């Protein structure tokens, strides 16, 4: 697998996250290329990670064994249509775009392709990412291994059997780092209003979040409810905070947010 030439079309946040994981896991940087219309992100990727860069999508796609489509969903059709002259018969195409169904890519690229839809998240940048994967048709063991290698270099992967499950992956892990950041921001803001210095508040909050996530991960025999109860002394401080969240139906709010996340992915699938 580490001989495959990989080309990322679009060099934004997610491409940077994936390539960082890949390079830091030992994948040869000279086999990785990223394309982008503006030069600044390309220069930064080249300087930081030593990969090849180009503004020429067509040439980069032609030269690649694996093409990772990494532009915003609203640009995907236009970007793919410009690649229709590339013979994809021996290539693997991976798309990370939210909300575009697999079958659309056959239309956009005007040929049969071997495609995998991936739904990663930005923590891939530091090798603690989470990626959901879906292949609409049978793909070879070798192609599956290529995708596993590519995405697991930045964290964990999970294959789903139905394309609709990818929308659930978006709500659960693709978008969710942002939910946790919002909660952390809210806590830091509250800490500041109470008089805590911002840097100190951030240190306290981010370490608590990291600790909670690591405890959840390292104690699979315990439910998250168990872990929560272990913090919550009867008649103590945590109970008061949790009661405030429950009284405001935090669980219902989270569910609504996730439903709206999925609804947006479904709308995007109709639009693009
Ligand atoms: N961010 C996230 O957490 C996640 C994102 N995704 C998906 O990843 C994809 C990329 O998202 P993200 O990285 O956040 O977005 P960004 O906007 O950061 O990156 C998209 C990049 O595509 C570039 N671009 C625009 N037009 C072209 C073109 N014609 N050819 C090549 N590159 C082009 C943009 O360049 P410029 O800025 O110079 O215009 C930009 O650098 C999206 O489809 C999104 O749904 C999936 C999971 C998580
Ligand atoms: O917000 C978005 O649409 C993308 C997909 C998941 C995370 N970011």
| Count of folded domains | 2
Using DSSP, what is the number of strands?
A: 8
CATH superfamily of the largest domain: NAD(P)-binding Rossmann-like Domain
- What does the average pLDDT come to? 96
Question: Could you say what the CATH topology of the largest domain is called?
Answer: Rossmann fold
Helix content: 55-70%
Q: What summary fits the major beta sheet?
A: 8 strands, mixed
Cα-atom Rg, whole angstroms?
Answer: 21 Å
Strand order of the largest sheet: 3-2-1-4-5-6-7-8
What order do the SSEs take from the amino end to the carboxyl end, as H and E?
EHEHEHEHEHEEHEHHHHHH
Top CATH class of the largest domain: Alpha Beta
Number of helices: 12
**Architecture (CATH level 2) name of the largest domain:** 3-Layer(aba) Sandwich
- Residues in β-strands, percent: 5-15%
Q: What small molecules are bound in this structure?
A: NADPH dihydro-nicotinamide-adenine-dinucleotide phosphate, (2S)-3,4-dihydro-2H-pyrrole-2-carboxylic acid
The gross shape turns out to be: elongated
Poorly predicted regions are none
How far is the N terminus from the C terminus? 32 Å
Supply the helix-strand structural class.
Answer: alpha/beta
Structure, described:
Pathway: Amino-acid biosynthesis; L-proline biosynthesis; L-proline from L-glutamate 5-semialdehyde: step 1/1. This is Pyrroline-5-carboxylate reductase. It is an enzyme of class 1 (oxidoreductase). It comes from Shewanella baltica (strain OS155 / ATCC BAA-1091). By secondary structure, the protein is α/β, with parallel strands linked by helices. The protein has 12 helices and 8 strands. The chain has an 8-stranded mixed beta sheet with strand order 3-2-1-4-5-6-7-8, with helices on both faces. It is elongated, with a radius of gyration of 21 Å. The chain binds NADPH dihydro-nicotinamide-adenine-dinucleotide phosphate (NDP) and (2S)-3,4-dihydro-2H-pyrrole-2-carboxylic acid. (2S)-3,4-dihydro-2H-pyrrole-2-carboxylic acid binds next to helix 7.
